[in-house]
Amino acid sequence: MNEHHLETSKSICLTGYGGFDKIQVQNVMLPPALGTNEVKVQNKLFGVNFADLYTLKGLFEFPLPHTLGLESVGRVLEVGAGVKDVKAGDRVVCYKWTGGLYSEFINIDMKNCFVIPPSISDEDAATLPANYLTAYITLFKIAKLQADQSVLIHSCAGGVGWAATQLAKLFSNVTILGTASESKFKMVVENGVNRPLTYENYATIISQSEGEVDCIIDSIGGSNFSISQKLLKPLGHAVLTGCSSLITGPEIFTSSEREALSSSTVPDMQGLVMGSRSISGFHLGLLMDQNPQLIRNSMESIFKLLGDGKIKPRIDSIWSFHEVVQAISLLEKRKNIGKVLLKI
Q: What are the protein's GO molecular function terms (predicted)?
């Protein structure tokens, strides 16, 4: 590798907030020195996430230009003096919720990297952090799904929903309900959903048939989360993992809208208390900072499940680095089934 690559890195950058015209491929200067706990990675693949849209629309504000990207897979070139358990030559999958990973070369803290077992492909590894880690922790650690229970998975054709369906199937006799567009029903049933439902009629149908469910995984948020809470059984648990309902068009989030989101009204407290129900939120990136060992243990469990053939990621499509707009647009239009990737 030549000195030019050590100095700059081809990166996908956000130059402003708003439309896709604000996304550009640029050469970005790398930090001159590797931190004590950092590793230098040459990336090959990248996971596309709804968080890219949140950032594009200004929900999260970063100094501009800002390199996008929460997930990447690559090979370690160099490690800092304090790095243990990772060495040059290792394949790693990386996750960083503040972005910066849509770049050919990155310096990243070792806590954000996971060494990929030899039996797992780069493509499968690229699907794991945002999707399977989120699904694993929300189902197993927070909602604590059990055998013979029922779970409602919103957006079950998306990355997290696809993963949550497969993980829920690991429990015996679990009933899996999932919301999706009707055009995706066949695929989600093949993945393990027992009862696919549309976003418009799921609440009515569940109320009239199953009545209530034990667990809800909701990446849609907004009014949908309030509706879903009423479908919980006593001692049931709903987990909010995202808020895709915020993305409805090209509009940029205003400062007042961001403030309203952070100070939104508390859910129906009376309904929660009288119904003996519980709700919680989940943010993978912040939990990775707060409890890195839990994240690492969970990822090791996911690696084993994948190696044993008990889960199987679905790649919707792989796009070139310069086709990033088309790739992110798939998520905005809710056209993907499974994970969308970029390659360089």
A: oxidoreductase activity
